[in-house]
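Hi R.,

Here's the chain you asked about this morning:
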Amino acid sequence: MNAAEAQQCQKELWKKYCADLRDDEVRKAEMKEKCLVFGDAKMKFGMEIIGEPSANGYPVYIALHGGGECPVPFINDRQWEHMGIYYKDSVKSGIYINPRGVRDTWDTHANPESYPLYDRLIEDLIAFYFADPNRIYLMGFSAGGDGVYLVGPRMADRFAALHMSAGHPNEGSMVNLYHTPIQLQVGMNDFAYNRNHVTVEYQLYLDRLQQENPDGYIHNVYVHVGKPHNFRDNAQESQPVMIDNCAWLHTGLVTKRMVDSNAVRFLEEFVRNPLPQRVIWELNTREYSEMRLTDSFYWLSVPSDVEDGIVIVRLEPKTNSIVVERDDTNGAVTALLRDGMLDLDREITVVFPDGTKSVHQVERSRQMMEETITDRGDENYIFSASLALCRRGGN
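And here is the predicted structure, written out as tokens:
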């Protein structure tokens, strides 16, 4: 199969895949009833389509409600209903989604079943409602902010950008957000769980990540002056925030400036690049991989039973090479490839961290495209070839 044949096959398979989803009675029912099921967990969701789509489809705003752990569902139900309108007026064109947390736990948006349900929701929105897979945004307030902290890094290759308000990171890692911009907001007087100070500490954490990788880890942090847990991240007018968050954290100095803190307007600035040339993947931050139905992250794949370590791999199109900068998996990484990433008709050189090299020839296959199209239900992640990145690797 040559490049032109692979491209045509990809188009045909994608068209058929979407048609099959739209004909699937289960998929049709879950979108009609606005309720997804995985095992014994159900994710209800509200949805509103606003405005007209662009040529690439509608952006999607997934808004996670507050609440969290409670003995009865009333609090979460009320917060869920409120999130149905909270950010909506700021969306001029898009699909506004407010999922109900699957259980009334502190991690209501990040139960193990939540992850495959988010995957399925995004797949359905792409197939049924012309959602743009490169403009899927995740946002949340309070317990919803906790959800953004937890879900965002584990599914970073799904999202164009993240917005976290008034949540707590629960010591979660942000390493996987190399290509996923995030904005954090908190009230200056949000003392519960030390959310105010921890938010700025995570600003410093993201600063360090960006210093190590200056081309990534885009982030922004607003501390709302004089505000408690609730503040206005959906306001149309400017809001007062701290000028120097770090000075406030370390010395208590309060300074003020006016900014546009609107969450939607931050998110809509960004479009996902699904096939970045360099990928940083912390495997520890996919602890629910036994529930998710994919072992892939961007264009890399590692078996789900490999639970620890970091992988850093980059493409070098000029030399038709794949450079393994770091591999803590002992050779368990596979590169998923398609035309445009490298020249698949030429030999591909794999360069290992110690400088040694191996040379491989890959072959395009329809089977590979069929396997990867169902992996994430995203046309951008249909791959025609794969290459094991081990010293005895093959195609």
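One quick note: The first strand starts at residue 35 and ends at 38.

Cheers,
M.
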